[in-house]
Request: fold
Amino acid sequence: MPVYRFPKVKPSEITPEAVWQGRRQWIKTAGAAALTGLAAPWAGIAEGAGLANLGAKRNPSYIVMDTPTPEKDVTSYNNFYEFGTDKGDPLLYAKALKTEPWSIEVVGEVNAPRKFGIDDLLKLAPLEERIYRMRCVEAWSMVIPWVGYPLSALLAQVQPTSKAKFVEFQTAMQPDAMPGLHSRVIDWPYTEGLRIDEAMHPLTLLTLGLYGKTLPNQNGAPVRVVIPWKYGLKSAKSIVRIRLVEKQPVTSWERIAPSEYGFYGNVNPEVDHPRWSQGSERRIGEGGIFAPRRKTLMFNGYANEVASLYQGMDLRKSY
Ligand code: MTE
Reply:
C-alpha cells in the first residue's frame, strides 16, 4: 500500500515566532532588555525546572514573547469535563485518574499499528520545551511552557497509508474516577480530530509535561496533544487511542452543538461564537476581570506557520 508522504518542511525551517510576531516588537524587547539588563519574560523560568524526570531542552524556534501564565493558574483553572464543569473541578477530582499503566494504541489506516506505553513515548523523540499561546473557545487565554515533541514523530512510527486523511483522538474513560461520565454533558468518550496535514504540522505537539514536569492529571496526564492555533477544545487530554481514518471524524463538540462548534476550531477573531464575540480575550493570571482584554489574533498568532493549510477555504463555513 502506498505510504503517506511527510511534508518536506523541517521544524528548523519554520520561521521563529519572534520574527513573524513583528521584527520591531522583537527588536524593541531585545533592545530594552539589553539596555535595562532585563531578560525575555520567560528567561526567569529555569529550563527543565524540576525536570529530574523529563530533561527537556527549550526550543528557541517555538517560544512566544508573552509572559508565561503562572503555573498555579495553569494547573488550577482547567476544562476537563470528565471531572466536572467548574474550572476548579479538575484540580479537586482528577487525583483519582489512574495513569499507570497507560498506553496509546495507534490504529486504522496504517501499515504498522502499534501500542505505545509511556516509556516508549518518552524514548521516541527528544523532549522539547515550547512556550505556546493557548486560546480557549470561552475567550480566555494562557501562555504555557509545554514539554513534548511533534505528533508527526509518533505517526511516522505507524506508517500511515495514502487513505489516512484524518486523525481521531479518543480519550480515557474511567467511570470510577470521573464523575462527569455519569452526566451527559458530552457524548463520551471525549473525541477530537484533525486533518492529516494539521496532525503532521510541526507545531502540533504530543505533550507529556508542562513547566518542566510530567503533566498534572488535571492538564491531561499522562499524554495529550496541543494544537496552539486552534481553540483549546481541540487539544484532547489523556489520550488512549489514535485512529487514522479516511472520512472526517465527528468530534464530541460537533455532536453536541453543530451550530456552535465545527470540525476545524481554528482561532478566528472574525467568526464569533453564536453566543459571544471571539474578537478579544482575557489572559488568565493578568490582573483579574478588570485587566484590559487582549485582541485575539488570527490563528492565535500562528498565521505565518499555518495559514497556507487553509488556502482556498471559506473559514466562515469551515469554522
Ligand atoms: N480533553 C478531555 N479529555 N476532556 C475535556 O473536557 N477540554 C478541552 C481540552 N481537552 C477537554 C479536553 C478544552 S475545552 C480546553 S480549553 C483544554 O482541554 C483545556 O486544557 P488545560 O486545562 O490544560 O488548559
User: Anything to note?
Assistant: The chain has one domain: 11-310. The radius of gyration is 19 Å.
